[in-house]
UniProtKB/TrEMBL annotation:
<dbReference type="InterPro" id="IPR006047">
    <property type="entry name" value="GH13_cat_dom"/>
</dbReference>
<feature type="active site" description="Proton donor">
    <location>
        <position position="467"/>
    </location>
</feature>
<comment type="subunit">
    <text>Monomer.</text>
</comment>
<dbReference type="InterPro" id="IPR006407">
    <property type="entry name" value="GlgB"/>
</dbReference>
<dbReference type="InterPro" id="IPR013780">
    <property type="entry name" value="Glyco_hydro_b"/>
</dbReference>
<comment type="similarity">
    <text>Belongs to the glycosyl hydrolase 13 family. GlgB subfamily.</text>
</comment>
<dbReference type="InterPro" id="IPR037439">
    <property type="entry name" value="Branching_enzy"/>
</dbReference>
<dbReference type="InterPro" id="IPR013783">
    <property type="entry name" value="Ig-like_fold"/>
</dbReference>
<dbReference type="InterPro" id="IPR004193">
    <property type="entry name" value="Glyco_hydro_13_N"/>
</dbReference>
<comment type="pathway">
    <text>Glycan biosynthesis; glycogen biosynthesis.</text>
</comment>
<protein>
    <recommendedName>
        <fullName>1,4-alpha-glucan branching enzyme GlgB</fullName>
        <ecNumber>2.4.1.18</ecNumber>
    </recommendedName>
</protein>
<comment type="function">
    <text>Catalyzes the formation of the alpha-1,6-glucosidic linkages in glycogen by scission of a 1,4-alpha-linked oligosaccharide from growing alpha-1,4-glucan chains and the subsequent attachment of the oligosaccharide to the alpha-1,6 position.</text>
</comment>
<keyword id="KW-0119">Carbohydrate metabolism</keyword>
<dbReference type="Pfam" id="PF22019">
    <property type="entry name" value="GlgB_N"/>
</dbReference>
<feature type="domain" description="Glycosyl hydrolase family 13 catalytic">
    <location>
        <begin position="257"/>
        <end position="619"/>
    </location>
</feature>
<dbReference type="InterPro" id="IPR006048">
    <property type="entry name" value="A-amylase/branching_C"/>
</dbReference>
<dbReference type="InterPro" id="IPR017853">
    <property type="entry name" value="GH"/>
</dbReference>
Length: 733
């Protein structure tokens, strides 16, 4: 017998109560620390290791054997009494081999009171480094601290390959009153898969992924993965120091929206990971002249057909595309190439998969309880209960995590309209009014305002953009002025109106003239982005070029004219991948874009036009400096519906103009007179009908001299030839 061991007690005297034993064996004990680990001032040690053959206690400092733990009458429950308390190790003999480890139940509470308080208050802004699986050194021992919010569970365990997925092995400690369960598992390393096993009020729930997992298995597998703290040597200091100016309202913002999994693929059809995207996507975006990329949601999501818009892991990038470090390297490389990165982010709803957030602890924890509040009928998803402080704080922390941890430059918030209105897409009698009897979701409104205020404080210089399709006032107005506080709002009305106009046969466009002018009535009521997004080229809506009427030549001419019209209108720009070269096929998330089309001159022409539009937009302050204020725009011709001609001036802050003329019929207009503010030479900066774009090369030989003849309220005028289905942009020399 070791001198540190005594055995004055019989086996039963070392055991906990029968009730405790029964609860332990049944997997129903809610406080395993009360009976396992060291007790009686550290002299009594109990471990519960189902299927273990034998257990020894070793001194942690010297490795000397302290005791052979006795197998009790309860299979798997081992006990011993030490003469004095010692820090110990467990040497466990299994049928498959031997394991050496510290006892998880020998460690005290780990989460600090401040962490618990801030979480319960809904104001913990760094949950990605607090909850979930955190690699830590505790008392000189490397391991992983798990922490998960499940206040209504009767028992929570961490399970994984490391314990045979046995929920009796690593039951957690409940920290009152925050409702967070925690456990430190010694010697566990990054890369381990895990899930939580929760005992609800009546039964064991389906295994749950970690809501704050930093990494996950690749779908269709559903486990979370322990991740080490992000290790990346950031080299984007120059970009970060200039970001606020690059993303200001007076700066050019031309966004290339893409779905990572279907932009390009390997020759064998496999997805490109972040490393390959660094090699292929970044040079392409830079060559095309875009200022930013916007990625459809890359947070882990179980169903690829949701395009990422039904995410379950609000802190974990999808394993489909590589490791967290690979994503960081991609963002860093974008910044070094002068390209910003915007992520689509979904705080409105989440999917109903059994391993997800739904009924997480057996109750409606993350979602509203009542289906009239907590279930989206259109999308078969749950709705976040943002009125619950913990959920509110969880989502704020998620937003900050992407902006701070990965240096992301902005978030585009999906489905804001569905968050603002309690009756969104619901019939009468299928929604619950707010406390004032109205249809506004007051909790979501408070959340969005808080989100935008916190981001401006915690991640200055970044953008938060709303996909909001209603007439809600002040979406991009500061919260101090009663607005929601977003930096930009997608102009869905402009998009719908102009696409309907372009779909008309040119002979009928005279009757729909106001669709192209109506957007200017409210163009400066918000800070707008003009979006031609993924939603416009799927589900039978046809591709952008296929929306255009006419024969092949007219379709391409219409597309070139529309893109030129868009780039010269007030508002920042967003174009979905494939639209920049006229893809005929609707977008499919299962296939890469039809890049072979660039073997054809007309597709190359559209691509070249977009390159030149982006360069012109960035080079000419008149096209971007006053995007968001009325001083930057002036109609010259907005009422020539008979000829389907429009003309306007764009001005920079110094008043220097650019002239834009759009002819949306396939008829050449000879001798069309347009007023201009100054005399002398006016040079064609862009002609969408140029031969290099696949056009008929009709125009004004590169420029024209202004006549001293007043027109359209201007002291001078130009006598122009307007190309068919074409847009001209001219600058004074």
């Amino acid at each position: 017998m070791s001198p540190s061991q005594t055995q004055p007690d019989n086996d039963d005297s070392l055991l906990p109560s029968e009730a405790d034993i029964d609860a332990l064996v049944r997997g129903e004990h809610g406080d395993p620390f009360a009976i396992l680990g060291p007790h009686d001032n550290g002299t009594l040690v109990r471990v519960y290791l189902p299927n273990a053959l034998a257990v020894e206690l070793l001194a942690r400092d010297s490795g000397e054997k302290l005791a052979d733990m006795r197998a009790s009458r309860v299979p798997g429950l081992f006990v011993c009494r030490l003469a004095k308390a010692r820090a110990y190790l467990l040497r466990i003999r299994w049928a498959s081999g031997e394991q050496l480890s510290e006892d998880p139940y020998s460690f005290g509470p780990l989460l600090g009171e401040t962490d618990l308080y801030l979480f319960a208050e809904g104001n913990h802004r760094d949950l990605g480094r607090c909850l979930g699986a955190q690699c830590l050194n505790v008392d000189g021992v490397e391991g992983v601290r798990f922490a998960v919010w499940a206040p209504n569970a009767r028992r929570v365990s961490v399970v994984g390959p490391f314990n045979g997925w046995d929920g009796r092995r690593h039951s957690m400690r409940l920290r009152y009153p925050a409702g967070i369960w925690e456990l430190f598992i010694p010697r566990l390393r990054p890369g381990e898969s895990y899930q939580y096993e929760l005992l609800g009020s009546h039964c064991i729930l389906p295994l749950k992924a970690d809501p704050v997992a930093l990494a996950t298995e690749s779908p269709p597998n559903t486990a979370s993965v322990v991740a080490a703290p992000l290790q990346h040597d950031w080299r984007d200091r120059e970009w970060m120091s200039q970001r606020a100016a690059r993303q200001a309202a007076d700066a050019p913002l031309a966004i290339y929206e893409l779905h990572v999994g279907s932009w390009r693929r390997d020759q064998d059809g496999r997805l490109l990971g972040w490393q390959r995207l660094i090699e292929r996507l970044i040079p392409y975006v830079r060559e095309m002249g875009y200022t930013h990329v916007e990625l459809l949601p890359i947070m882990e999501h179980p169903f690829g057909g949701s395009w990422g818009y039904q995410p379950l892991s609000q802190f974990a990038p999808s394993a489909r595309y590589g490791r967290r470090e690979d994503l960081a390297a991609f963002v860093d490389a974008c910044h070094q190439a002068g390209i910003g990165v915007i992520l689509d982010w979904v705080p409105a709803h989440f999917p109903t998969d059994s391993h997800g957030l739904g009924r997480f602890d057996g109750t409606a924890l993350y979602e509203y309880e009542h289906p009239f509040e907590g279930f989206h009928q259109d999308w078969d998803t749950f709705i976040y209960n943002l009125g619950r402080t913990e959920v509110h704080g969880f989502m704020i922390a998620s937003a900050l995590y992407w902006l701070r941890e990965f240096h992301v430059d902005g978030l585009r918030v999906d489905a804001v309209a569905s968050m603002l209105y309690r009756d969104y897409s619901r019939k009468d009698g299928e929604w619950i009014p707010n406390r004032h009897g109205g249809r506004e979701n007051l909790e979501a409104i408070d959340f969005l305002r808080h989100l935008n205020d916190v981001v401006k404080t915690e991640a200055p210089g970044t953008l938060v953009i709303a996909e909001e399709s209603t007439a809600w006032p002040g979406v991009s107005r500061p919260t101090a002025e009663g607005g929601l506080g977003f930096d930009y709002k997608w102009n869905m009305g402009w998009m719908h109106d102009t696409l309907k106009y372009m779909a008309e046969d040119p002979i009928h466009r005279a009757y729909h003239h106001d669709r192209m002018t109506f957007g200017l009535i409210y163009a400066f009521s918000e800070r707008f982005i003009l979006p031609i997004s993924h939603d416009e080229v799927v589900h039978g809506k046809r591709s952008l070029i296929d929306k255009m009427p006419g024969d092949r030549w007219q379709k391409f001419a219409n597309l070139r004219a529309y893109l030129s019209f868009m780039w010269s209108m007030p508002g920042k720009k967003l174009l979905f991948m494939g639209c920049e070269f006229g893809q005929w096929r609707e977008w499919s998330h299962d296939h890469e874009l039809d890049w072979y089309l660039l073997n054809y001159d007309d597709h190359q022409g559209v691509q070249q036009l977009v390159k030149d539009l982006n360069r012109l937009y960035r080079r000419e302050p008149a096209l971007h400096e006053q995007d968001c204020v009325p001083q930057g725009f002036q109609w010259l011709i907005g009422d020539d519906r008979h000829n389907s001609v429009f003309s306007w001036l764009r001005r920079d802050r110094g008043g220097r103009p650019l002239l834009v003329i759009a002819n949306f019929t396939p008829v050449v207009r000879h001798g069309y007179r347009i007023g201009v503010p100054s005399g002398g030479d006016w040079q064609e900066a862009l002609n969408s009908d140029a031969e290099c774009y696949g056009g008929s090369n009709l125009g004004n030989a590169g420029g024209v001299v202004a006549d001293e003849l007043a027109s359209h309220g201007q002291p001078f005028s130009l006598n122009l030839k307007l190309p068919p289905l074409g847009v001209l942009i001219l600058r004074p020399v």
